[in-house]
Amino acid sequence: MSSESPVTARPDNLAEPLAWLPARARGALPEDAGLRDWMRDPGSLTSRLRAACPQGFRLELLGEAGEPIPEDARGLLAGESARARRVRMFCGESLCVCATTLIPSATLAGTPWLEALGDRPLGDALLERDGICRSAFEFARVSPNHPLFMPALQDSDIRPASIWARRSRFSLAAGPLLIYEIFLPGLTRCRNR
């Protein structure tokens, strides 16, 4: 896929900040216990989806492109821009999760395997390596039209009133990266463990 595909083109108003909350904050998590369980799970989301999807797990790489770092991430990543990698995860034909990974240039330069992922899940590659630390999750309830996530929902008829998202920062030897994951209604149809 071209790095300048419409799906990965920089959305307008990317710097619009979101209110990210820790798990203990009031209103940080959905009332739906099943969805809350998925969002708080500290394990590999990819591995859990594989186990929960008898129809088959599938990851679709939407593309990668350079983008400005959004304002709400500037305390977590250094620099002004990062490589954005957008993927969608399906259980059978149901779209369950959209994810955006922001990788600063210094992290990318010192971690060449990140550029060679293709459509391989990032979670699988992280699990194979030692010495990687993950921060606590932060959560936000956002509009599906938020510019950070809108590209991942293009060509989809999914437009719930709001969607839940989490983010976490991974610390690698060469530097950090930041992963945003949004949880879509199709996820609740996957069986739990």
Summary, kept brief:
Helices cover 16% and strands 32% of the residues. The protein has 193 residues and is α+β, with helices and mostly antiparallel strands.
N- and C-termini, Cα separation: 34 Å
Number of helices: 5
Proportion of residues in β-strands: 25-35%
Number of strand elements: 8
What is the string of helix and strand elements? EHHEEEHHEEHEE
Write the layout of secondary structure elements.
Layout: E1 21-22, H1 33-40, H2 45-52, E2 57-68, E3 81-91, E4 94-104, H3 105-109, H4 122-127, E5 133-134, E6 138-142, H5 150-153, E7 163-172, E8 175-183
Description:
- Strands 1, 2, 3, 4, 5, 6, 7 and 8 form an eight-stranded antiparallel beta sheet that branches.
- The longest helix has 8 residues.
- The chain is globular and about 40 Å long.
- It is 16% helix and 32% strand.
- The protein has five helices and eight strands; from the N terminus they run E-H-H-E-E-E-H-H-E-E-H-E-E.
- It is of the alpha+beta class and 193 residues long.
- The N terminus is likely disordered.
Offer a few descriptive terms:
alpha+beta; eight-stranded antiparallel sheet; 8 strands; 16% helix; 32% strand; globular
